[in-house]
Write a structure and sequence with these properties.
Distance between the termini: 29 Å
Shape: elongated
Order of helices and strands: HHH
Largest sheet: none
Helix content: 25-40%
Number of strands: 0
Structural class: mainly alpha
């Protein structure tokens, strides 16, 4: 629907896996994917700034809207 998000995935060094191990694993990440309807890249950037600033007038509303989905915490941090 037009937000045009781009994600960069950098493959790591291949290595031999023990039998039964997953072939793909997330080793590190920077941030999360933006939540739906966050206003594209500029809206998401604004949201991250507001969520990180408890003194901002919109802080409580943004944090309530995000719930437990904090954009500054990566999937690797919660895995």
């Amino acid at each position: 629907m037009g937000d045009g998000w781009e994600h960069v995935i950098t493959p790591g060094k291949p290595y031999d896996l023990p039998a039964g191990e997953a072939a793909v694993a997330l080793l590190s990440a920077e941030g999360k994917c933006p939540p739906d309807d966050s206003g594209g890249a500029p809206g998401f950037e604004r949201m991250v700034v507001i969520a990180a600033d408890p003194s901002h007038d919109e802080h409580d509303d943004i944090v309530d809207w995000l719930g437990d989905d904090h954009p500054w915490q990566s999937e690797a941090d919660t895995a």
